[in-house]
Sequence to fold (158 residues):
Amino acid sequence: MKYMIKMKNGIVKVLMLLMVALMTVSCSDDEAPEPTLEVTPINLHGLWKLQELNGAELPEGIYVYIDFNRKGTFALYQNNDSMEPRHITGSFSVEKDPRIGSILRGEYDFQNGKWNNEYVVTDLLESGSMIWTVKGGNEVSKYVRVEEIPSDILDGIR
Fold:
């Protein structure tokens, strides 16, 4: 009888150890979401490249780079809407909307008007990517942080 009680206690202990091991495995850091940053001019500061538009990579030879300055200015280098590469400057702002999140808007220098769209910026990740969704629309852009604009693009603009 004593042997049976000891055996039951041993089985219970083994089962408890197995449960603890399974719980430890299921709570691994692999499932933790990547940390996000608040959308502010300071966290946007730097050079970004448009990597995807509506889930698809840009066609070969098409590019959009935007260089945000923490003081609220930007420089845009792009060839997606003209035959020639363009360098466009202006200012931007970020507004918090409690219902939908951070809204990014911009205005071009030299009285060339406002951006065609306002964007809801989400998933500004510490690893260096962010998602822009046209406010009230369905166009989604993914930008990634880059170190520099290729020299051939800069040469083509000069």
The chain is about 25% helix and 40% strand. Residues 4 and 10 are 10 Å apart (CA to CA). The mean pLDDT is 86. The radius of gyration is 25 Å.
